[in-house]
From TrEMBL:
SUPFAM superfamilies: Terpenoid synthases (SSF48576). It is an enzyme of class 4 (lyase). Its EC number is 4.2.3.-. Residues 34-51 have a biased composition (Pro residues). InterPro entries: Isoprenoid_synthase_dom_sf, MIB_synthase, Terpene_cyclase-like_2. This is Terpene synthase. Residues 31-63 are annotated as: Disordered.
Length: 386
């Protein structure tokens, strides 16, 4: 990275300066947390790379990977551990059947099939070949994306900024039902049954409960609600026709990133990372680094399409171009450098945490690495972005 580009990335990550602004700086999230002793457990066994394996626990490493038309700087990413077209097709076919059952995307199921959320699950969770577990991961992600389409982005599906917050408030009730309240509960159930997105989220949450512990279930419900807080900010910016500064967008995006999808890693893998390990500061920082990097990939693949919208979504590339007054290509280069910064941060965190003798933690970190790799591959091949 040249000095001018490095200075731009550092400035954007540092955020505003002046009295009262330090708490808002995104850079705070990148600083090492105080070292806290982690629970001890069995030392994980290592496996050498074996590209022929359909699943398993091994790291194929990291590399600079070309993307798009190959004309932009490469993205530093983990390499993909598994590509299995047959397994992807099976999971995706079952997912499309489920989408028809719950009622999302009627008349658009071919486009939904082309999006390939089943393939995303297979790419992003190379540890398992279990179709039911992979189908759960695909359902959960598809339901989250459906709420984005129906509530936030696609006006022809009914999305409206002023309707977004009250709609999102029902999501938690669909996934985590409140205590019975007589006729008011009946009215809530009628509202959920009338909304295919809420039906999809409730169905996915039901599948979650079959596979997960109570702690993991509440982790997913809480993280989903956390993600939707950022969506309310996007709706306000869109309704007012204003663009947030890059630092504020990144601050919101950290909690509306593929970190949410990565919270499924141990559930799909068939084990549990203890909550005290999952939320330990160094582990949490590593997962947030990975989630933010992965969502910048999403912004990069979406930038051209969103730039053509009359009222574009918040996108880090477009916001950098506006804030810096630079051409879109320079903004892409800055976003790529920012992505690579976060990935290298995760890689460093992963190496630091390798000394912790917890098999579940090492599996989880490897799973997060696998999600970054699979998400990158999926964005380059999904009909949703190509």
């Amino acid at each position: 990275m040249d000095e001018q580009l490095a200075a731009r990335v550092n400035r954007l990550l540092a955020g505003p300066t002046g009295l009262g602004t330090s708490a808002a700086r995104v850079a705070d999230a990148l600083r090492p947390s105080p070292v806290v002793p982690l629970p001890r457990g069995p030392v994980p066994s290592s496996s050498p790379p074996s590209p022929g394996r359909r699943g398993g626990r091994f790291s194929p490493g990291y590399a600079e990977r070309e993307w798009g038309d190959g004309s932009f700087p490469p993205l530093y990413c983990p390499l993909t551990a598994r590509v299995d077209d047959d397994l992807s097709r099976e999971v995706n076919d079952r997912l499309v059947e489920w989408a028809e059952e719950v009622g999302i995307y009627p008349g658009r199921l071919d486009r939904f099939r082309d999006a390939g959320f089943g393939r995303l699950a297979v790419l992003a969770h190379p540890e398992t070949d279990d179709v039911d577990s992979l189908l759960f991961g695909a359902k959960m992600n598809a339901a989250w994306w459906a709420s984005d389409d129906y509530y936030a982005d696609e006006s022809d599906l009914g999305a409206a900024p002023t309707e977004l917050p009250p709609r999102l408030a029902l999501v938690t009730s669909a996934m985590d039902p409140p205590p019975p309240a007589g006729k008011y509960t009946d009215q809530l159930e009628e509202a959920i049954a009338a909304d295919p997105v809420l039906v999809a989220l409730r169905s996915a949450a039901g599948h979650l409960r079959r596979l997960a512990t109570p702690s993991q279930v509440m982790r997913i419900c809480t993280t989903t609600s956390q993600m939707y807080v950022s969506w309310a900010a996007y709706a306000a910016w869109r309704h007012l026709g204003t663009s947030p500064p890059v630092w504020r967008y990144l601050a919101a995006r950290q909690h509306d990133s593929f970190y949410t999808s990565m919270t499924l890693v141990d559930i799909v893998g068939g084990y549990q990372l203890d909550a005290n390990l999952f939320y330990e500061p160094r582990v949490h920082r590593a997962a947030m680094q990975a989630g933010t990097a992965a969502v910048i990939v999403n912004d990069l693949f979406s930038a051209e399409k969103e730039a053509a919208d009359d009222l574009p979504d918040c996108n880090v590339v477009l916001l950098i171009a506006e804030e810096e007054g630079c051409p879109l290509r320079e903004a892409v280069e800055t976003a790529v450098a920012m992505h690579n910064h976060f990935v290298r941060g995760f890689e460093a965190s992963q190496k630091e945490l390798a000394a912790v003798p917890s098999q579940e933690l090492q599996r989880f970190l490897l799973g997060v690495q696998g999600w970054m790799a699979g998400g990158f591959d999926w964005h380059g091949t999904s009909g949703r972005y190509n």
